Amino acid sequence: MTSQVLDGVAVAKEILKGVSRRASVLRDAGRAPRLATVLVGDDDASKTYVRMKVNRCSEVGIESVRIDLDAEISTPVLVAQIEALSADPAIDGILLQHPVPGHIDERAAFEAIDPAKDVDGVTRTSFAAMALGNPGFQSCTPGGILRLLDAYEIPLEGRHAVVVGRSHILGLPMGMLLLGRDATVTYCHSRTRGLAEILGRADVVVAAVGTPELVRARWLKPGAVVVDAGYSAGDRGDVEQPAAREVAGWLSPVPGGVGPMTIAMLLEQTVTAAERRAGG
Amino acid sequence: MTSQVLDGVAVAKEILKGVSRRASVLRDAGRAPRLATVLVGDDDASKTYVRMKVNRCSEVGIESVRIDLDAEISTPVLVAQIEALSADPAIDGILLQHPVPGHIDERAAFEAIDPAKDVDGVTRTSFAAMALGNPGFQSCTPGGILRLLDAYEIPLEGRHAVVVGRSHILGLPMGMLLLGRDATVTYCHSRTRGLAEILGRADVVVAAVGTPELVRARWLKPGAVVVDAGYSAGDRGDVEQPAAREVAGWLSPVPGGVGPMTIAMLLEQTVTAAERRAGG
């Protein structure tokens, strides 16, 4: 048996068609949606991610404003820069590319984003909305994963979902979203004992730690739904990918699984933010 | 083997000694801490809880202002009332007794509480702070449970903790707090399948649903740490209590376990809020 593919490229493409249509309505009204991207420092991977997002914006008719800041910038200066974008009426959405350099207080920088422009879903307000099931922008990767599962009509209610990883913008909100859909949810992480046994009982696995092939194929329950949200150099995910295809019922590839969904969510939320601002 | 007792009465008493000392410092400076309690309707259990909290306030030197509102009050009127307390410089902390009557938008009422006065830890801001490990007030029952476990030096790191229940002010933040202490955390709830098997693997169980004796003694792993956060008429908890004493390694009684800890947390956070306001 070979697992079926959770094809993020195909699903993202459908989402972006709708985004493109909505962006053109706004453009025709003279209110083209506009995303500000903020990049601190010159990490190659981060630069690549920002470039991909900016390119994708232009393909769907979202304007972007790139703000590239020196790696040595201080937290107060970064916060002031983001506050200025929050106050700028010409900006609909703000993306602070993370991780930021270690000397910066990332949480302070995130909180400088106006929740109405938090299209990447990183503020406390957005996190609480996700966790408590209130309206708000979603953290793009977990939100995109849920959309991917929904596109393939994967049932979640009453199923045991295991999230490996507990980062504030991925693992933690991912579990909250799955719990909101009535899955039984287990969070595993670096201190977890017996990861193999826990994964062996999981109906749904989301691997989100960034350690290549941490999740071994032999640990998976046959037929499980496996989402690989990791990405490491050399197109390696958090799941032992070729082997997992023989065990999982559904599997998201790397690349072409979660990545495109994350970007699609970002652009969709940017258009939503722009529509709200235009209507307000 | 009989389980050891997680004695909430004794631990709360120690906490309240400190609270009393700190309240008297504030009182001597002419800034007695003051808690506003808001009760909507005349549910007997809710009235009892408010009375207990008010009595305990007076024992430790916290002044209280009781606001009892008609069950028929509308959401906007309740919100306006709470906003007035948020703005009132004479009030340090605000407790909205829950549940409120079904026609009221409880989330809107909670959000009317200034986070600086949210000594019951019910706002989105407090929830996000708990979940993300940032400073902030804690939801009193999960915060109190963590304090109770700490008082008995129960290790949490790497242990499998199962939280039964996912309410916004108890189960959900409880799991986040345990995750913050490096436990592997599973959330179970009404849609969970195989609850008995999941509980059978748990090192730590927090039962928080309000269904009498939902958690059967025979499901527990021998030696497990069991916290019974339920309370139903007739002093019945969520755990099959007499029988569980023969299986669990540690068990919180009902009454005398979680209840006193919840109140102690409320009063401690009220004094903290008052100290911050006095210092500011």
From TrEMBL, chains A, B:
<protein>
    <recommendedName>
        <fullName>Bifunctional protein FolD</fullName>
        <ecNumber>1.5.1.5</ecNumber>
        <ecNumber>3.5.4.9</ecNumber>
    </recommendedName>
</protein>
<keyword id="KW-0511">Multifunctional enzyme</keyword>
<feature type="binding site">
    <location>
        <begin position="165"/>
        <end position="167"/>
    </location>
    <ligand>
        <name>NADP(+)</name>
    </ligand>
</feature>
<dbReference type="InterPro" id="IPR020630">
    <property type="entry name" value="THF_DH/CycHdrlase_cat_dom"/>
</dbReference>
<dbReference type="InterPro" id="IPR036291">
    <property type="entry name" value="NAD(P)-bd_dom_sf"/>
</dbReference>
<dbReference type="InterPro" id="IPR000672">
    <property type="entry name" value="THF_DH/CycHdrlase"/>
</dbReference>
<comment type="subunit">
    <text>Homodimer.</text>
</comment>
<keyword id="KW-0658">Purine biosynthesis</keyword>
<keyword id="KW-0560">Oxidoreductase</keyword>
<keyword id="KW-0521">NADP</keyword>
<keyword id="KW-0486">Methionine biosynthesis</keyword>
<dbReference type="InterPro" id="IPR020631">
    <property type="entry name" value="THF_DH/CycHdrlase_NAD-bd_dom"/>
</dbReference>
<comment type="pathway">
    <text>One-carbon metabolism; tetrahydrofolate interconversion.</text>
</comment>
<keyword id="KW-0368">Histidine biosynthesis</keyword>
<dbReference type="InterPro" id="IPR046346">
    <property type="entry name" value="Aminoacid_DH-like_N_sf"/>
</dbReference>
<dbReference type="Pfam" id="PF00763">
    <property type="entry name" value="THF_DHG_CYH"/>
</dbReference>
<keyword id="KW-0554">One-carbon metabolism</keyword>
<feature type="domain" description="Tetrahydrofolate dehydrogenase/cyclohydrolase NAD(P)-binding">
    <location>
        <begin position="139"/>
        <end position="277"/>
    </location>
</feature>
<dbReference type="Pfam" id="PF02882">
    <property type="entry name" value="THF_DHG_CYH_C"/>
</dbReference>
<dbReference type="InterPro" id="IPR020867">
    <property type="entry name" value="THF_DH/CycHdrlase_CS"/>
</dbReference>
<keyword id="KW-0028">Amino-acid biosynthesis</keyword>
<comment type="function">
    <text>Catalyzes the oxidation of 5,10-methylenetetrahydrofolate to 5,10-methenyltetrahydrofolate and then the hydrolysis of 5,10-methenyltetrahydrofolate to 10-formyltetrahydrofolate.</text>
</comment>
<keyword id="KW-0378">Hydrolase</keyword>
<feature type="domain" description="Tetrahydrofolate dehydrogenase/cyclohydrolase catalytic">
    <location>
        <begin position="6"/>
        <end position="120"/>
    </location>
</feature>
<comment type="similarity">
    <text>Belongs to the tetrahydrofolate dehydrogenase/cyclohydrolase family.</text>
</comment>
